[in-house]
Inverse folding.
């Protein structure tokens, strides 16, 4: 994306320079607008299957993504559009995939919950709760054996904490000193139930049990997430695996179409007060970057998404000849 108009590069003590914060805001806005568009396309029946939106959680994807290098690998969740975008997937091929078209990232076979692009280290979204961790641990083993100098990151939700695969992964990562980072998006919910009714232990306690350093951060403050992520990624790269817990907000229902009868209106207003985009706008204003000056980027993002959607709509569906490709027995 093109750079916006020149901005002052003042920074608060221990904070990020305005230019970096502005780029992070742009990344979050891209994720937000992509998902708003996906919500409309899904409501109109243009997207097959289910979609789960990460609106309210964009600071985690953007902040952790900004701390990663291209050689690093990332495994994601069922709520993974932001992770894929932050890792740098091609937006045209992303929309083609979501619409099930043959030129999509996975030839239209995966859709929302399987977006992957191994060429950029995006190991895949995943419909199985907790399943991204063992995949990322495997990738971390590959980095260690091949001495790539890369880090493998697993994003997962608080609802995954009772899954056995999470425990096995944390154990191996710690035992073998893998270049591994576990990033928990703790939004307080697992489907339609508060996770505090499902878990006997905290992530802090689990990390301690497996001898892993645990860092807790406001997952809706992109600056805080980025600074914390830089530290834990550097540690993981040096062979000291890490756990980063990001407290965040699942603004939408569990899936698009979820009537959310189990949630209170007070929660909605509390979440609105913690909107990661609004927090970044306020932080930028404090650095002398007014909201109006962010408009050119927003217009550019909207145009870019509109072009990707037009290409995806015009894209061909996989033909019958594709039906047996990739099938083996
Ligand atoms: C192994 C497994 N068990 C159950 C499910 C059904 N399921 C899908 S999402 C979900 C809750 C996930 O909660 P969390 O991990 O906190 O992610 P969030 O939806 O809050 O982002 C469940 C139980 C599943 N997909 N996989
Ligand atoms: Mg959750």
């Amino acid at each position: 994306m093109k750079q916006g108009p020149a901005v002052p590069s003042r920074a608060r003590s221990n904070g990020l320079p305005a230019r970096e914060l502005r780029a992070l805001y742009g990344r979050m806005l891209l994720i937000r607008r992509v998902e708003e568009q996906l919500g409309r396309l899904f409501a109109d029946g243009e997207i097959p299957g289910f979609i789960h939106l990460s609106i309210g959680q964009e600071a985690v994807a953007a902040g952790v993504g900004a701390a990663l290098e291209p050689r690093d690998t990332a495994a994601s969740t069922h709520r993974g559009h932001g992770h894929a975008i932050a890792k740098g997937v091609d937006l045209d091929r992303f929309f083609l995939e979501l619409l099930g078209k043959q030129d999509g990232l996975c030839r239209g076979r995966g859709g929302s919950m399987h977006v992957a692009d191994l060429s950029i280290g995006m190991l895949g979204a995943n419909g199985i709760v907790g399943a991204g961790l063992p995949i990322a641990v495997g990738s971390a083993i590959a980095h260690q054996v091949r001495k790539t100098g890369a880090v493998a990151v697993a994003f997962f939700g608080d609802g995954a904490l009772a899954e056995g695969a999470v425990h096995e992964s944390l154990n191996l990562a710690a035992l073998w000193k893998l270049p591994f980072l576990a990033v928990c998006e703790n939004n307080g919910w697992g489907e339609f139930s508060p996770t505090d009714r499902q878990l006997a232990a905290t992530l802090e306690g689990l990390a301690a049990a497996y001898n892993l350093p645990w860092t807790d951060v406001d997952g809706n403050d992109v600056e805080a997430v980025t600074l914390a992520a830089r530290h834990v990624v550097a540690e993981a790269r040096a062979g000291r695996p890490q756990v980063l817990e990001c407290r965040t907000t699942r603004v939408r229902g569990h899936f698009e179409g979820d009537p959310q009868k189990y949630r209170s209106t007070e929660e909605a207003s509390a979440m609105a007060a913690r909107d990661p985009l609004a927090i970044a706008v306020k932080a930028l204003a404090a650095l002398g970057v007014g909201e109006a000056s962010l408009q050119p980027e927003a217009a550019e993002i909207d145009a870019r998404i509109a072009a990707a959607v037009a290409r995806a709509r015009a894209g061909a569906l996989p033909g019958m000849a594709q039906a047996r490709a990739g099938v083996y027995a």
Notes: The chain has one domain: 34-313. The two ends are 44 Å apart (CA to CA). Residues 27 and 115 are 18 Å apart (CA to CA).
